[in-house]
Structure formats: C-alpha cells, structure tokens
Design goal:
Strand content: 15-25%
Structural class: alpha/beta
Strand order of the largest sheet: 16-17-18-6-1-4-5-19
Number of domains: 2
CATH architecture of the largest domain: 3-Layer(aba) Sandwich
Helix content: 25-40%
Distance between the termini: 37 Å
CATH topology of the largest domain: Rossmann fold
Length: 486
C-alpha cells in the first residue's frame, strides 16, 4: 500500500488567524490544548501554502499594533516557529482576485482557509461625514504603522483639537499616539512619515466620545492605565457624569468594570495639573453632524441618556441637549468591518463570510473545502490570542471533513505545480526567504538609528531588495503549465 499523499491546504492571509491555523494544521511536538489537555489534531501529513497580498506577513501585528507596544509584537516569534515547520510555504505579493481566483484555489487544494480579517469599517451615518478631515481610526492606525496601502495619506494635524468617536482600545491607542512625546515614538518602529508629521503636530487636546456610559466603556483597564501614565498629558473625566454607587448594578459591573470606574473617579477628582496636553473622556455623547464648508470645522454632538427596553437591555437615547466641539480632525473608531471576496458568499449586515463552525456556507448549504477563521469568521472581536482557539476550531472542522472524505480532492495540484503557476501569474512572488531579506534590511536600518526596525512602506521598495529567483520552493518563470494562463 503506497504512502498517503499530504493533505494540501491553502491559507489566505498571513495575520494571526492564518498563522495559528497553519500551526494547528502542521502540528507541534506538544500538540494542541483541547479541554485542558494536549492532543494531536491529526496524524495525516499536511502541507500548508500561505498566500498573502503584501510582501510581508503577520497582518495586524505588523500593521496595527501600536508602535509603543513592542511586547505585543513578540508573538511574531511564535509565527516564525510555525513558518519553520516542515510543510509550510509563504507566497507573498499574491492577491486574490488579481493573481488567482477562489474558484481556482478550490481546484488546486484539498481545502482553503480564508483568514483575511476585516479590511473595512462602518460609517457613522451622519451629515458631513464625507468632509475632508473625517477619517476612520483604521486608516490612521495603518498610516502610522507603515501599511503600504496607507503610506501616502495626509492627516491635517495643524489644529489644536482632535475628536475620536468611540472609546474602545483602538480609540485609546490613537489618542495616545496623538499626544505622546514624539521623542518616545522615535524609539519605536513607527513609520517615518508618521513620526515626521507627529513631530510638528499642533494637537494639544483629544476628545474621546462614548455613546454609552462609564460602565459600558469599551476600553480595557490596561489601556486606560496607560493614559494616566503619559508625561505632560492630563486625563480629564467629568465627575458629574460618573454614576454614583447606588446606580452601579452589581450584576452588570464585574470587578474589571468596577476597577475601571475607580480609575475614572480618581482622575475626575484630581485637580488640574497644567500639563501641556490633555485627553478628555466624554461619555453619553454622540456626534449627530460634522460641520464645515470645504472640510471639517466642528462636530455637533448630542447628550444621551440610558434606558432599558422590555427585555432589560440598556440603550443610549438622545436628549435635546446639544453642543458644538470645534475640531478639524475627526476619527471614527467604531469598529472594523469585513470586505467581500468575489466568488465567496458574504453577509453584508455582519461583515463576515457566513459559516458553520468555520465551514463556509452559501444559500445551497456548506461549500465543500472552503473554511474561514479570524475576524472574517466571527467579526472584529477579541485580542491576538483569541485567534488561536478560533483557528483551532476551524482546523478541527477541516480535519473532520478530511477524515470523512468530504473534501473535493480529485484535482489537487502538487506543491511544485502550484509554485510554478503562482510564479507565472505573479513574477514578483515573495517567498518566505525573500521576506526574511526585507526583515533583515529593516532591522539593520533600525539598529543604526537605535530603533527596533525602520519599516519599508512601499511595495516597490521591498521588491527591489529581493534577488531574482529567491527561494528554493519557487519555480522559475520558464516552467509553465497549461493551466498557468488566466
């Protein structure tokens, strides 16, 4: 009886969700935790090809984690260990829809896992939102993180006040980057263009608007504590807005919420210190219109109150109390939203690819061989580590289908043929060895400047570093197959 051929899986997207999926598929000496014990998910041989639109892997760890949070980027060591496992290959600079279609991947591989994240964001739906000066926090974060798609954006930092709509962790990250001393940022891997702009920024006040109350604030305690530790930045909270003890419903306020409330009360009662910058936390406040002629000049906001519906759920309802906040920069930090992939089903309301336990479903039912993990599976929730369990559950569904022979395996291509086709479609393919060249270049440039790395923010600059034919697993352009043409 012949040796079993490897299960061939494509993973689309090289962020945490995709990397964790690859790790579960390829296994590790220790196994994977399930119900508190380590187990091996499969004993079958597996090969994983990871396809990424950018030449660089790691997704939001590289393109969104705040530059002054280097400890959160240490997870890339885990990803590097996964990439070193036998059976793993990375193909960067490959875009789904441009270089290869989902229908083709479905033919080439036994299974395809889409881990493409949430590449869009919801809008506020208010008049004036289209004015220059109103951006998404997603765009601002990608800009200062050096994402190539956003490197050429220009944010007007000439005004003294910025307004952030939404009070999750992203909002607090953005407020911190706008107010922290640029000398501190100069020691990080923040994009050079962002560092230059922030050095000359005139912003002295950042107002963070929360639609609901203090007990429902979306930020976490560590992110709040960071704001209290910023040098030359004052954190302002309105004491009159804070709920009194008898208003705190204990079954709704766990210890982390009560700790958050304690911190807010402490800073609300703190006398003004006269620091040069300030971050203002405003709760029960929503924007209703952005005002301006050719660009944003002010935000009209309304005061909210909380009321319960028949089911006991709290809702923020507007009152008649309005106010105007003068500002030239509004950043909406109201979440992320998935973007559809041509050829795959998409839920326009939830911003995800419809699925059952990670199996993609359309109007006819389960799509054989197609899977999702990460934000495109569950929506934009959780931290980096949340993707590990999410990916594990998807991989378990995939492996169960493989064991039950539910995967369409008749036309699966071998690894050499796939590399040949991809190189024909995209002559500037970036294998993992080529990414390491980019990585070493950035780190070397960073060491000379006393920084972790200096990021390349343009794809053309990255590709210029890579010698032709880099990578043992990439076929030469002259090796062509009949299916290599689109």
């Amino acid at each position: 009886m012949g040796e079993r051929r490897p299960l061939r899986v494509a993973v689309v997207g090289a962020g945490p969700a995709g990397m964790y999926a690859a790790g579960h598929l390829l296994g590790s000496p220790g196994g994977t935790y399930i119900d508190g014990r380590l187990v091996q998910l499969t004993d079958m041989p597996v090969e994983v090809d990871m396809l990424e639109r950018l030449p660089t892997p790691w997704g939001l760890v590289r393109g969104a984690v705040a530059p002054d949070h280097p400890e959160k980027k240490l997870v890339t060591r885990v990803f590097e260990a996964i990439a070193a496992r036998p059976g793993f290959r990375f193909f960067g600079n490959v875009e789904i829809g441009r270089d290869v279609r989902p229908a083709e991947l479905a033919q080439w591989y036994d299974a395809v896992i889409y881990a493409v994240g949430a590449a869009s964001d919801p809008h506020m739906g208010i008049p004036g939102e289209e004015l220059p000066g109103c951006w998404s926090a997603r765009e601002f974060v990608a800009w200062y993180s050096g994402h190539p798609d956003f490197a050429d954006l220009h944010f007007d930092l000439s005004g003294e006040r910025a307004v952030i709509v939404g009070n999750g962790n992203v909002a607090l990250d953005v407020a911190r980057i706008l107010t922290v001393d640029s000398a501190q940022l100069a020691k990080t891997d923040i994009a050079d263009h962002a560092l230059s702009a922030l050095r000359t920024s005139a912003i002295r006040e950042v107002v963070i608007l929360g639609r609901r109350g203090h007990l429902q604030a979306a930020f976490n305690n560590p992110e709040l504590d960071e704001l209290t530790e910023l040098a030359n930045v004052e954190l302002l909270v309105d004491l009159e807005d804070l709920p009194s003890d008898h208003e705190v419903v204990l079954d709704e306020a766990d210890w982390t919420t009560l700790r958050k409330l304690e911190t807010l009360r402490r800073y609300a009662a703190r006398p003004a210190t006269g620091r040069s910058k300030r971050i203002v936390l405003r709760f029960l406040t929503s924007p209703v219109e952005l005002i301006g002629v050719d660009r944003v000049e002010a935000a009209l906001v309304v005061r909210n109150h909380l009321e319960r519906d028949a089911a006991g759920r709290l809702h923020a309802r507007p009152t008649e109390e309005e106010a105007i906040i003068q500002t030239g920069l509004v950043l909406r930090a109201v979440g992320y939203f998935g973007a559809p992939i041509p050829g795959l089903p998409f839920d326009d309301h939830k911003g995800v690819i419809p699925n059952q336990h990670g199996r993609v479903v359309d109007h006819d039912g389960i799509v054989p061989g197609a899977y999702v993990t990460g934000w495109v599976k569950r929506g934009p929730s959780g931290i980096i580590g949340t993707n590990k369990k999410c990916a594990r559950d998807t991989v378990r569904s995939l492996l169960a289908d493989a064991s039950a022979q539910h995967l369409p395996t008749a036309g699966t291509l071998n690894k050499d043929t796939v590399a040949d086709v991809l190189r024909t479609r995209q002559p500037q393919l970036v294998p993992y060895e080529a990414w390491k060249i980019i990585d070493r270049h950035e780190r070397r440039a960073g060491r000379l400047a006393g920084r972790p790395r200096i990021k390349l923010t343009r794809v053309t600059d990255m590709l210029e570093l890579i010698p032709t034919g880099t990578g043992p697993d990439v076929a030469a352009p002259e090796r062509r197959a009949s299916w290599a043409t689109r």
